[in-house]
Design brief:
5% strand; globular; 14 helices; 332 residues; mainly alpha; Rossmann fold; 4-stranded parallel β-sheet; 4 strands; disordered N terminus
């Protein structure tokens, strides 16, 4: 039986971070250091989240596209966890490339440390095609890991799919209850809901402004791109086109018989969200909603208004804080 990594952050074991090659991390963005594994062996891109923001849709679109060879399992979780936990979808195993990839993952899972060189070699199976790792849990990794990954793969492109924190968190809670990773709770009780939002496995994934800021700190601007779940709902064909162009693939080629608006996850059942609980969850995320509007831009600009929050007051407060800091610095 091949053991792969699951994304349940709250179940992660204590990890030993050891690096079998000398890292040349100096805090700079990718492109300034060059450390590749031998040969054509590295991922072309990472999709680092967000969970419940369209990552399964993206994997489906890329897996069937002729310009890509995608790993036979959607989420590798290699960079965020060495914990062997159950997975909910069996890996694809259609040909020798899939078999070699899964064997490589099995060998990596036997190590007690992260080996980026061998992780890169997994992607030798892509040949001349584009390939990458779509693991939403990478939104939770530390700055140290981000630095090491970016230094090791300097031409790595990074994608983040952003979703309204209220909707995203509710979808994660619903999935957790459905899959048994979160104990059933009274979804009409605001206090019970907030208690579950404070679960580290939920909370760590629920602040896209902070996640984006951390990855942007190390990834070159032209190699990092934010896309929005709002666009998946509104115009999936255009979202697909934008992502494929960013990754260097031909958006005019079809993804097999898969339509751009086909999304199996949209059919899954969710907990019923009452107006009262929705208001409480929105209040819980008020500061993050406003931070997303200013930091992420795009559709995120409209997120605070969905819940009756004034972005103007938030901006004024930020400017006031900046003025105070500037004054203190001047006085000093």
């Amino acid at each position: 039986m091949i053991l792969l990594f699951d994304g349940a952050v709250q179940d992660n074991a204590v990890m030993l971070w050891a690096w079998p090659f000398k890292s040349r991390v100096n805090g700079h963005r990718n492109g300034e250091d060059n450390h590749y594994p031998p040969g054509d062996a590295w991922p072309d891109f990472l999709c680092v989240g967000a969970q419940k923001a369209g990552t399964s849709w993206l994997y489906g679109q890329l897996e069937r596209h002729p310009d890509f060879w995608m790993p036979p399992v959607k989420e590798l979780h290699y960079l965020n966890s060495l914990n062997r936990t159950r997975r909910f979808h069996p890996p694809r195993c259609m040909d020798q490339r899939d078999t070699c990839f899964l064997d490589g993952m099995k060998n990596l899972s036997a190590l007690s440390y992260i080996n980026l060189e061998n992780y890169g070699r997994l992607f030798e199976q892509k040949g001349s095609l584009v390939s990458g790792d779509i693991s939403p849990a990478y939104s939770t990794v530390s700055d140290e890991i981000i630095q090491r990954v970016v230094s090791s793969f300097p031409n790595l492109k990074v994608i983040f799919l952003a979703r309204d924190p209220v909707e995203r968190a509710w979808s994660q809670l619903s999935m957790g209850v459905r899959l048994g990773t979160i104990s059933p709770f009274d979804a009409t009780d605001a206090d019970e809901v907030i208690r579950n939002l404070l679960n580290p496995g939920v909370l760590l994934r629920s602040h896209p402004s902070k996640i984006v800021a951390r990855w942007r700190r190390y990834v070159r601007p032209d190699f990092f791109r934010i896309f929005f779940f709002d666009d998946l709902q509104k115009n999936p064909a255009e979202l697909r086109r934008s992502i494929l162009q960013f990754l260097g693939a031909d958006p005019n080629k079809p993804s097999g018989g898969l339509k751009a608006d086909e999304n199996q996850d949209a059919k899954t059942r969710k907990l019923r969200l009452t107006d009262k609980v929705r208001s409480s969850v929105a209040k819980f995320f008020e500061d993050e909603l406003k931070a997303c509007a200013t930091e992420l831009g795009g559709p995120a600009k409209k997120w605070p208004a969905r819940y009756g929050f004034s972005l103007l007051m938030f901006v004024i407060q930020v400017l006031d804080d900046f003025d105070i800091l500037f004054w203190c610095d001047w006085v000093a």
